Prior knowledge:
2 strands, 52% helix, globular
Amino acid sequence: MKTGKNLRDEGTTLVLNNASDAWKHEAHTIFEQLIAEGVPFTSEDLRNRMTLDPHHPNAWGGFWIAAVKKYDLEVVGLSKASRAVARAHVMPVWAVRKGEN
């Protein structure tokens, strides 16, 4: 029996596999710039810097699910989206998890 997580992960893999290499490259490049800046950021910060759109809106979520795992991100706050189409939804503010010293 598949769980919701299994179905999400399968959908994430499918949508990212179908995303263009150019979109994925731009998203990763900008994402790494956001991390390098060393300040917390939101998904909207990434979207605002992008010049390309994905083939499907679910590619954004798929990208974030993969990025949170790859870069060991943690939620450090909440913010309201400013894009009108996002209808002021609440979104996480992300930062790279700080390791114990």
